[in-house]
Amino acid sequence: MTPEHGPLIYEGKAKRIFGTSNDEEVLVEFKNQATAFNALKRAELEGKGRLNCQISAYLFEILQSAGIPTHFLGLASDEWMVAQRVEVIPLEVVLRNVATGSLCKETPIVMGTQLEPPLLDLYYKDDSLADPLLTEARLELLGVVDSNQRVEIERLARSVNDLLKCFFEKLDLQLVDFKLEIGVNRAGQLLVADEISPDTCRIWDKRVNNTKARILDKDRFRQDLGGVLDAYGEILKRIQEVSSKPRNCS
User: Model pTM?
Assistant: First the structure.
């Protein structure tokens, strides 16, 4: 079902954002498109949008119940979310609990190394620049956030990590790393925005020992492992077993 909505505000690789009759709210449509390597690799996976929307809704509810502010207001349908209108800060906030991916390609850190404390990296969000890693000096030079916002963004990211890492542990899932986007609402409050899903997290199945079979996230698409929808569906199933349904705004 497609809810009534206003004009298209923004279209990204995985979502479309539409206006509504309330200028402080937007409707977010989760697309079935899968992308990797800065969208150089693409595919349509029927049902992916629904899975990411539902997983994100459950996780946003969990964060909000713990006092972590997010843009989530409720579900409009299986693939549509109602959210606060925010101005997204052009940063990708990446928090790593286990070394893998680009960190191991760019450093001599051995894959699988437990990172304690978890490593927090900031990237400048710009596809045309390939989302470069920011140093503290570059962050200050760009003026993307002020010092107070920088501290609050890190606090938010680490709070999300602490909560979700423990939550996933109860589901026999390991939160390896994840990417957050942060937005500012009309009141000037920093909120966790965008989505939290297997598209933006690395999640491993602790019930499986095989290094490829344990992957339940977008790496299945990146590495041509197949079974993307089954993996995402397994995460949603385990979340639903222990969580109340997200709010419905339809």
Answer: 0.96
